[in-house]
Amino acid sequence: MTIKFSIPYLVGKELENVRLCLEELHLSGDGPFTRRCHAWLQHEFGASALLTHSCTAALEMAAILAKLEPDDEVIMPSFTFVSTANAFVLRGARPVFIDIRPDTLNIDERKLEEALSSRTKAIAVVHYAGVACEMDTILRFANKHGLMVIEDAAQALRCTYKNRPLGTFGATAALSFHETKNVVSGEGGALLINDPSLVERAHIIREKGTNRTQFLRRKVAKYEWLDVGSSYLPSDLIAAVLLAQLEEIDAIIERRRTAWEQYHEALLPLEAKGLLRRPFVPADAVHNGHIYYVILPEAAVVQRLVQGLRAQHIGSTTHYVPLHSAPAGQRFGRAVGSMSVTDQVAARLLRLPLHAGIGERDINLVIDTITTVLTAAQGLAN
Ligand SMILES: *Cc1c(COP(=O)(O)O)cnc(C)c1O
To answer: How much is the pTM?
Structure first.
């Protein structure tokens, strides 16, 4: 591909940080670079933050912190990455899938009531493409029924809902620094802990179920096994890369948003002709340019467009196979109500090349190709 769908964007200081880390010889977790990343995240979110080796790991920690018992239920969208559901299935809980909103493609808060049962313990929300879920309604519902809210904020770093950062609404929130995300460390993630009563246990879970964090802070003479847990912390080498990226977050997001805006403006005429639908961002949400997608009139047009783009060496990619229709989703979860929006969006959504290093000329070529393919297809239909 000449125009790749995604390329990790390096800010320049990563190698220097890795060199310093190697000289420091603190290669395991929670070294100087991890501490600086924690400080950065704590300042950004006003919450406790712990680096993990992935967003998947952070979600697993969140599921342990939710104290789920077998057969407890967690309401979530079906249009999401497997890790949102797997984390809870690993605790013996059941994902209960509901449909998404046709506009933002986020969990449809109007469907929560129908999914509520005596076993419901939590709601896992996913801010798709960094666009906020309808948090006021979701939090009101959760408070009314005593449910924990967990945010899968993997795509939502530097996004807001009513001027407040995503990741600060749930009891916990999970971030991803996977190389396909906006800010990257290869693999990587973080758990944000907004409920102070969960912080101490989060440290224990992340350190193999021990109070090793207390020991390293010289609060206890020996560390011992206290709880369930695993090894969720990344090497300080990962944090060295991540810190360089976090320090340049403004520039990274600016670049992505500029590319996003270029697509959005140029594709308006095709939307006006009914040839595609562009992303919708509510007035009270600010996004981070993580994904630019188009929704096409039917699945056959997706195939035609993918081929047309590929012929110009342009990468594009669909997104999730809905979890409720995947083999493991059927085995471990259940769907409540119609899933027609999820099914339709999954079949018709295509993501366009977008990364911090993409240039205006590349985007113009993508737009020209889309215009040619879709208007030719329209000509055929007429
Ligand atoms: C990327 C992503 C994840 C997984 O992140 P990893 O860091 O790769 O574990 C989970 N949920 C959503 C919504 C994602 O986009």
So the answer is: 0.97
